[in-house]
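Lecture notes, unit on protein representations.

Consider one protein chain, 313 amino acids long.
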Amino acid sequence: MNSIQVLLFGKFQILYSGAELAGIEGRKTQELLAYLLVYRSRAHAREVLAETLWGESQRSQTRKYLRQALWQVQTALEPCIADDHTEPLVADPDWVQFNPVSSLWLDVAQFEEAYGRCQGMAGAELDTACVTGLSRAVQLYRGDLLEGCYQDWCIFERERLQNMYLAMLDKLIDWCLAHDECEVGLGYAEQILRYDRARERTHRRMMRLYYLAGDRTSALRQYAKLERALREELNVKPSQRSVLLRDQIRADAVDGGPHSGGSATRFEPGQRVPGQPCTDPRSHLRHLHESLTSMQRQIRLELEAIELALTET
């Protein structure tokens, strides 16, 4: 890893060889560097930078504040020059830009790169490289972008990056569902609920993960948590899809669950196998009625699930 690391997720931090780098303690200086790094792919007019970051000040003072903050940033980042003989910022009298060949390491850049590599891929179809990359990326997300900064540009970027974070977690949960990594998937789902406790789809996936892990009790308790979150946050009831999943879990009839055995008929101990003599016709008839009722219930639940899925596509 390169010598200078800038961490923009959560509290602003800039490190050199693992230690806090001095010289960028001022809030506006940190915001300037963060702005240049978040929008690192383009050059910025000094006048626009000054207005964006010091818009509340008199115009005659904003250029002065910008010059001072730029000097502080450039002075603090001098170790970059010593490491790779490259100026981290490219500046002239009118424009300022982050140098794209600088060796500076940025958490947001690594995060966005991981997202871009797997964009457009379904979670269940992720390859090993994508799963590893996304797992590392979500670990970089220590908190929302520049916590404590409430400028318009930062609020916009904070929401954009948070949506990327939630999308990556969604993909990882899909992968976990497809590969029976139930415990890992539940951890990712918990991270989503910290940001949106009433996110119904995430609750449903947790119900599935618990059920796949053989923990039907926790799956049903998760439904109760969903009910409470929707009532307290939105004053609504769970959707038909969530109710249907709850009913399937209660009936132990979730497709792909730990007790599903495919299309082949299974026979429990003591059950009469077709072709064997029937020694107790009444008992056998009662058993057939019970089996038929159970099968009809399962078919009804499956049909409702298919119909509901078709209406949502």
